[in-house]
Design brief:
By secondary structure, the chain is mainly beta. It folds into 2 domains: 8-68 and 128-141, Chitinase A, domain 3 (Roll), CATH 3.10.50.40; 73-121, Thrombin, subunit H (Beta Barrel), CATH 2.40.10.330. It is 5% helix and 42% strand. The chain is built from 1 helix and 9 strands; from the N terminus they run βββαββββββ.
Amino acid sequence: MTIQPGTTVTLHFSLALSADDIIDSNFEKDPATFTIGDGKLLPGFEEALIGLSANDKQTIVIAPEKGFGQSNPNNVQEVKRDQFSADMALEKGLVVSFADAAGGEMPGVISEFDEKTVFVDFNHPLAGRDITFSVHIIDVQPSVTH
């Protein structure tokens, strides 16, 4: 059976920016199981799996448009320095948690700052990056419908 929309897939995977910069991997852990189309994987990653079968191994480079999107300059916000605690040691690359409009948490990365202004980047950290997606398909089953 090949992977199609609605099939349940069990696989090992890794996401990497380069051969020596692995972001996430479950090759040393239990495999992941999900149904194609259930929203657990980004569409570009699901598209890369379509047509594969059990025991297939594949490495695919996912472009930003099909992965985590392009970096959007509108997602970089200017915040007054006095909105941060005076004793907070700011540094470029520091991840800070902010409250969003719904009361949830939204991480932002300090991209630049001076004594008056802090620029916070709310883009996904992998936005604008090609992602190398390596998979080993363990099993493909028809989806169980209730």
